[in-house]
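1st attempt posting a full record on here, be nice pls
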Amino acid sequence: MTDTLADYAARGTAILPHPWNLLALAVAATLAALLLHWVVFRLLRRVVGRTRSEADEMLVRRLAMPTRFALVALALVLTAREIPAFETVWERVAGFVMPAVIGWIALAILQALIEAMKLRADISVEDNLSARRQRTKLTMLSRIATFIIIFVTVGLVLLSIPGVRDIGVTLVASAGLAGLAVGAAAQPALKSLIAGVQMALTEPINIDDVVIVEGEWGRIEDIRTTYVVVKIWDERRLIVPTSQFLEGAFENWTKKTAQLLGSVMLYLDPATRIAPIRAEFERQIADNPRWDGRVQVVQVTDTRRDAIEVRLLMSAKDSPTLFDLRCDIREGMLEWLADHQPAAFARLRLMNGEAEPETTGPAPDS
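the predicted structure (as tokens):
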């Protein structure tokens, strides 16, 4: 009768004392599994190296480590089936090892799939609203799925411990006060999990959205199940609870589109001629590469005793560009007024009896 590989291994280790022959069998099975893993993944790397898709390489890279341990565990299981003495030892640790390995593989597959799908959602392009929405959903679903996998894995590992399993059965059977206590203790975690699901479905914010929250201007850098990281314009990070974006008010400047309108206010003398100012503004805004070509308006929006309020309205593709555009136009218009219409700046008029009004400020053009 043809002998199996396990029979050869058993006879080869029979010359060792009892504890050491089991260890030798475990080492032999482990080395065989590692050799098989090395051969298989070497072939897989060659195959995916010839493809153009980064997703294949990412999947192989993610699965390399967990599958190595899975093959070792499988080799030990097959060895334990053939050798009763080794099976007794393996049964004591299998309840811990197998759920952990399976959970690890599930996490690796999940992360590889999420990263592969994120590659298709490129947020570096100019019109990236759809990509940002997709990345936000992927991020939130990844967090939730990771939590569920880890929770189930830890539960299976704990249930393999007889004492813990008995306690769990007792709690389930008794329910009542113990169940209420467990439910109350798990309420924050469940609330965060539900908030994460709600965030992914309702989309009040997305990755890279521009928001104003707690009086700070910044971009959404990361969305977790319990908190959101906002990168403020000066490189600080603002940590905001997820519930605040679901229950409180905040400004989202890129909910539908990143395009924005902005204004520059000039306070000028009531006798100022507006037509030359409008012509100069239109010239400057047309020459500025930050202007998106949508809106350019000059309006007198208010009149006071000593000044008029002139609003220069303009548009840009996003908020950082709009801020720089407003600074450019403000500086350019002030320099032009100083050079060509210095009398246009608002002045304070003082009345001295029946005399003509006295003025303070720059002298009118001669």
